[in-house]
């Protein structure tokens, strides 16, 4: 009888070993794919600079800024108005974009502000456009880039500084304003409120992979791969240090990339100081393209209120 059982036990062991092998191979494949996707998310192809302010009839200066890290050179443009500038407005582009930010687009919007007497600075974050750096960090180190551009503006120009950012650039603008009290106000179009929680809920939007197991694996791998603390890119934990300075939040209810509730959450932290404009029918950061004059008028009204506050001091 014992001899009869041995082949069965052997066969069972073979099947169990094979099943374990398949599971291990599957896990290794998932980890390998997650490493690859995590690398791709932080190393996007650079969008080339194909137009300049001159193509839109604006005089400009090429400029090189230095990130607050003291080593990363950032390329950009300074577009002066005719006459004395009322304020310098620094534009901060989105994830995997550059200083043109074609989907907004930045240059036509800059032209509208320059015509109203504002100096506009456009620049490329690290690992984007023509700037140095080889890794996109979705706000963690981009904050230092923006702080470096703010330092440049304060050193070279006498007028006040305001920030305008879209998507990742909007979140980064809030983070930078929290650290530099010389920023008079922020216009934030479609920011996330907290990078880690946003990615945990929306990673599949960017990767097109199932949440289980890939979202969890990628969120574990990216910080180790890039030596990043995702918790450092958290506007919801920074807005208390921006007040009493104002923030104008702009977000479309039909944004398919970053839900408009992200801006609502940020606005509700200080509704007595912050402003919120929710648009409709516009996809991610497309409110300017769809609303045009209304968008510009909202920006101008906000900037004028900053000027009035400055005049009272």
Automatic annotation (TrEMBL):
The keyword Amino-acid biosynthesis does not apply. Keywords: Hydrolase, Membrane, Transmembrane, Transmembrane helix. GO terms for molecular function: hydrolase activity. The keyword Membrane applies. Pfam families: Peptidase_S15. Residues 70-208 form the Xaa-Pro dipeptidyl-peptidase-like domain. InterPro entries: AB_hydrolase_fold, DNA-binding_regulatory, Xaa-Pro-like_dom. PROSITE patterns: PROKAR_LIPOPROTEIN (PS51257). The chain crosses the membrane at residues 14-39. This is Alpha/beta hydrolase.
